[in-house]
# Entry
Amino acid sequence: MEDQSKELSNYQYFKVDLIETEDQVCSLYIIRGFLSESDPKADMDEAVKRIVGDTSYSDFIEHFLDNPWCRVVITNMDFLRSVGDKDSSGLYSVFAKDVTSQVRIVILFGGDSLLSPWSDMASIVAEKYGHQLHQEFIESSLDNPWDRVVIIGINEIPEKLWNGTI
# Structure
């Protein structure tokens, strides 16, 4: 039997509240760590559970599928989806938040009218953000091609904000 009390001390998270009302909070977490592990998935899954607890969340992984040491989690995603602004094309909605002058979080929600959502959403991200250094995240179970998280300036998040809230 596996030791359930395993200490998960070799990860960090950054939290930003994207939107807050009297009833609920929608937060984004960037979780990084477990660098000494070749397959950190199980420990990342446990870290996510410890961080968000019983709150509903959506889980995102790096879109090239080659960085299991970083994950993005958004709590109360359905609420966030309801407040996103429609793009002028009407093909998708977008929610954006500037965290610092160098860090911006953008969440794209593709519409049902996209004919090929995987490639359409990739094209939208490339067109809108390809000229900026960014990381792109897709839904972790790979069954939702419509939602994307783009983080511009992820490496510019000040160290003092990791394991903290902004």
Summary: The first helix runs from residue 41 to 52. Confidence is low (pLDDT under 50) at residues 1-6.
